[in-house]
Specification:
Zincin-like, alpha+beta
Length: 295
Amino acid sequence: MTSSSRVPARSPARAPASRRRTPRRPLHPAPSALVALPAPPEVPPAPRPGALAALIALPVALLVAGIVLLAFGIVAGAAAAALGVVVLAGDVALGAPSRIARRLGGRPADPVREARLVNVVEGLCAAAGVAVPELRILEDPAANALVVATRREALLYCTSGLLTALDRMGLEAVLAHELSHLKRGEAASAGLASLACGALLAWLPASARLVAYLSGDQREALADLAGVRLTRYPPALAAAIETLGSTVVRPTGLDTVVLRATAGWWFAPLAEAEPARTIAGRLDLGLRATALAEL
């Protein structure tokens, strides 16, 4: 057979359009296709404690005024100076945050026994940009938590009942709320409120309401918002609040001074801190859960 009689090679037949393979979609969408979850609303800053400064300065003013009056030979200056010394000593001895923390007691959190607690707090502190506070456990079946800020350190108290009552997501939501008090400066303001009312804590039952009022009427509701901005999951905090609303939240064994100083500081505030009348912005547990459901 000659080269001129060879049959030319045939090109492969193309598959019908209906049988052609469509290119696979990428497993991960392009960045432009991602939809960002809406963030919870901005949280207003914590109020400045102007009234606290006035109350703390009152015994100092009495002491200075008494000394000045004594310098001019006025006998009443001695009484004013003595009253200033007594009030100032009572404030420091009873209301100083370091004294409150010491009287609260508790044991240090065990890194093995409370590994979940330690892990959650460290992760939240890294996300919030705050130093990890000292973790202390109150052996009490009540489910509650609070944070105390002293001049040198911050302490986060959790009851053993809280660790038992909540799962990891609920515990993370509650701890984010408490750490928000540290980040926003509300824990420091609460410590000043306790210091300002220290002389009243031992004998005036209404001092619990006064400390709670000076600590901030909206501190818990605002810390709820700040906490969910950190976790980005409001339903977890709402579920935790509902769980605590159906269980015991009042720790036992608190002495009178600590009870009155911290009644309004707990995640679930105690009855001693409840106002005698309705105050705008002060929400109970039920209203806090309802507000979170709207986010």
